[in-house]
Amino acid sequence: MWCGRSARPVARLSPSSPMLAPSAAAKMILDAALDAFKQVDILVNNAGILRDKSLLKMQEEDWDAVVRVHLKGTFCVTKPIFGHMKDRGAGGVIVNTTSTAGLRGKFGQTNYGAAKAGIWGFSNSLAHEGLKYGIRVWTIAPAAASQLTDSVVSEEYKRTFTADRVAPVLLYMVSDLSGKQTGKTLLAGGGYVSEIRMEMAPGFVPAEEFGRRRSRRGNRGRACAAARARSQLRQCVRSGAQVVNESIRAHRLSVGVGFEGTGQALLLVRADTMLYALAVGMGSDPLDRKRAIVRV
Q: Using CA atoms in the order 175, 42, 197, 191, what is the torsion angle rounded to 10 degrees?
């Protein structure tokens, strides 16, 4: 483990080191940081592995290994440090690493995507628990070439998506510059930064008389009621764009994201922090109002 301004190692396991239980290894990380710095103010969980295979070719051990390192590893390391921050009473910042593979999916990464989506949910829930203790929790989806991706990305990608183009975003998240913000998710890579959040449309609830008319009128009544329900559902879906537009105006946003042909909007993002990777069905240019499906 590397800590401190000088990024010196304060805990290191050699290949000959005995295997430790995850909770014991996490406790060792906390103890090493306390020995070196007397306190822990920031935690960044970024450990990860890949075992990419399509579902039918994936073995159970491929699934277990990825979920164990990413999701369970995040839990094991976070728990003792969150406890230390709570007991110390001075707050702190925790940043967990998710991925667009978990937020929107990617072929051959059902194990990795499930683990990363789990980390996103873990972080969102932990943010609520940390409020009363002044512990802020972020999630970051970094896009950068590393040893993990070295064999699967192009040389052009490696030149553009470097770690030093992610680090400033991470520093913002853990510093006082981000104020009291918590429970948020940022994508960062190649000089690009975006915030992603999710919203729900109003949905559809059948009218109460739907069931009563169905029982009284038999087949004809069922057909009429079903047609009426379909009409109500179409109206609800069409109203999705209006709901998004109202939310956009309320938040001073400029672009809404929806599914083409339905008007149903599921995601909403800030104009200056647009995450196109999650905008399924959006225009080819997420900042071009003429091509956006839902426009203000």
A: 60
Q: What is the pLDDT along the chain (296 residues), one digit of tens a residue?
A: 445 444 455 555 444 445 567 889 999 999 999 999 999 999 999 989 999 999 999 999 999 999 999 999 999 999 999 999 999 999 999 999 999 999 999 999 999 999 999 999 999 999 999 999 999 999 999 988 887 777 777 888 888 889 899 999 999 999 999 999 999 999 999 989 999 888 777 777 776 665 555 444 455 555 666 676 667 666 665 555 555 555 555 554 433 333 334 444 434 333 333 333 333 333 344 444 444 333 32
Q: How far apart are CA 290 and CA 271, in angstroms?
A: 14
Residues 6+ apart with CB under 8 A from 97: 44, 45, 46, 48, 116, 119, 139, 140, 141, 142
Fold of 39-195: Rossmann fold (3.40.50)
Instruction: Return the H-helix or E-strand segment holding 93.
Output: strand 92-97
Please tell me the total number of residues recorded for the chain in this structure.
296
Where are the chain's structural domains? 39-195, 209-295
Pick from 125, 115, 114, 135: which is nearest to 47 by CA?
115
Q: Which of 170, 143, 163, 180 lies closest to 44, judged by CA?
A: 170
Task: Spell out the alpha helix ranges (H) of 57-153.
Answer: 60-67, 73-88, 100-103, 110-130
Q: At what angle do helices 22-37 and 73-88 cross, to 10 degrees?
A: 40
Start-to-end C-alpha separation, the chain? 48
Q: Which residues are catalytic?
A: 112
**C-alpha dihedral (4, 180, 196, 242), degrees to nearest 10:** -170
Distance from chain centroid for Cα 155: 27
Helix (H, G, I), strand (E, B) or coil at 181: coil
